[in-house]
Each structure stands twice: as structure tokens, then as C-alpha cells.
Amino acid sequence: MLTIPQLFTSVAVADCSFQAEVKLIITPENHDLQLDLWVDRDPSTPYQVGDNITVYARTNRDAYVYIFNISPTGEVVTLLPSSREPSNFVKSGEVLRLPRGNYRITANTPGTEYLVAIATLRPMNTQSYWVKRMLDWTDARTPLISTAEELLKRLQWAELEPFHRGAYAATVISFVVEEPYYWRLGHLSVSSNPSGAMVFVDGRHVGMTPCTVRDLVAGYHELTLVKEGYRTIVDQVSVRANATEFRSYTFTPLAIQPPVERVVFGPWRVLIRRENDGATRSFSADFGYSGAIQIRPRETYDGKLYQIEGLLTVYPSGSVTQVFLLEADSIRESDRGRTITNTVGPFKVLATIEDVELAQTGSVFSSKYIKSIALSIQVVWTGVTY
Hints:
The chain is mainly beta. It is built from two helices and 29 strands. The protein has helices at 129-139, 148-164, and strands at residues 2-3, 7-14, 17-24, 27-28, 35-39, 47-48, 55-59, 63-70, 75-80, 89-90, 95-98, 111-120, 144-145, 168-178, 185-193, 198-201, 204-208, 211-217, 219-226, 233-239, 244-250, 262-272, 279-284, 290-299, 305-315, 319-327, 339-344, 347-359, 369-381. The relative contact order is 0.09.
């Protein structure tokens, strides 16, 4: 818009006629248009396929707002204006909420989606090439394929810079769409000859053969079958989403003589600085035995590490035994290289302190605490049956 801040005139009289000289000072208006765009979910929280999405926009001046959705596969759909949302004029400070009619905007494709929004003080020419193409293709349900960056560049080149220079605002936001959790689950059916074997999936006891393990996350899982008098079977099984995988195994009887001592797990190295650094590892051996070792750090209520405990679970009995306990009050930095050995059932556990760092003061609960400790864990099959 043009303004006339001053008008200077001078008038001369000659032959009973008037002559006027007019001088105009023309100043272009500073538009300072701003556009905000957001959705009804925090960016750190993804949508799932099938979820409803609400889109919001706001401008600091009366403006015409255009919103385009770009799917993870690059399909461009015009949300505003459209046959369902023909009016795209938004008053200053008013919050635009889509959808406004009797329909839904839903998340359909897993991946990252983008919203491109543009606000202009004057309506864009809906007959210009790119605008008309997107509107028509959206109505025909054969959308344009593009990225958010390419789309915005095309509109700037073809429409915004030539006809709305300095009088438009544009923004791009993104959000993530994930597959529903139940879409990522599958089932595993396990049988054996002979039957009656204990079945473990990723170290967790899930039943006796024949059995079906339901609702496993799609991907690879460690399957362990344990039966007394037979060699333990360990297999990596791929589970597909929305499908059932079938596995059948034949056990091999064990020889009369037990196997010689051998390492069945390790060395497993773990660095512990806080309570949630603990972990569990599973292993298997011959003669129908398997187990799991758990490293369990403990913190005081003020977040200081005061002990590290090692627990060994032996199957098929399922018994749990403490194989080592390292407490801040009793451990010394000179203990580096010390190995703690404990035998439980057919397994011998060797826990070596590779490194330890202690703090003498600072904990409210105790004057001494563990700043960090590095352990090396090995589990040895002793060849002894029980």
C-alpha cells in the first residue's frame, strides 16, 4: 500500500487560470507478516498410523493462509484451501484449526511428514501453474511428488517473489508417523522331538514344547530349547510382523561322558557408572542346562552408586544365586585385576575388576561411593551334572 505523508502545492495566477505543481513523497509499507504453524502433538511424540491429526496456524495480520502436506513418500496434498476447506482467510491473532468440517486428517504412512504453510496479504493466483496444479491434483487424488524444500522453492520462484515480495511469510514443520505397535508383532510356534523341552526366547522362559509364543516384536530372537539328557539347542529365529513362524527341532542325546570344561559365555565387559547401566546376559550349555547372569547396580536415594551385585539364574531349576557383591565401603582401588570366582550348579562365574574409581566423600547416605567400575565376566561350563 502506498501512503502520502506530505502534499506540497504551489499556485500561480495567470490569465485568470490556475496552475498547480504537486510533489508526492511515496513510502512503501513495512508488512512484517508473521506465521505460526503447529500440530496437536509435541514433536518428540510420534503419531501412529490411523491417528487423527489437528493442524493449527496463526498470523499477526489479516492474511490468506495456504497449507500443503507432504507425505513420507513425497506426495503433496493441499489441506488449505481445498474442496473441503474453501475459505483460507484468517484474521489477525485468530487461531486457524484444521479440520473445520465433518472429516478427519489422519496419519496414513509411516515416516516423516512435512507441512508447508504460506501466508500472504493478498490471495495467491489460484490459476498460476504450481498453485493450480496442486489444487487440481489434490481434488483428482493424484498428488504431485515433491519434497518440502522443492515445493517451497517452486512457489517462491513462480508466485511469491514475483507477486508478493515482502508481503508473505512461509514456514515448514515436520512430525513422525510410526506403525502401530501391534503391527510390529508376530508369533513363534515351536515343537521338538522328543517334546517337553523348556523353551526360552531371549533368555525368558516362555513354556514347554510344543508351544506358541505370541506377540514378539518383529526381528531376530534367540531361541533356546533345554531338555535333560539332550544337547541344548540354540537358534536365531526371524519373526515377521503379523505372521506365525513355525520351527521344529530334533534333540541329540548326550554321550555318556560329560564334556570338558569350557567357556560358554564371555568375556563380557561392562562399564557401570549409574544404576541403569545394569544388564542381563543369557547363555546355554550341554546336558540340558542354561542360565542367565544379571549385573545389578544399586544407588542411594541421592543418586550415588553404593554396590554392584551379580546374580546367576540356572535352568531348568530356575534357582537364583548371588555370585558376587561389591560394596563401596569394602572395595579398594587396589582391587584392580582381582577376580572373584563362584561355582553354582554346573557353572563357574569369574568376575574380574578391570578398573574402579571411588569417591571418598559426597554421598548423603554414605561418605564413600563408586564413581565407576569396569567388570569382565566369564561363565564356564564345568561339565558336572546335577
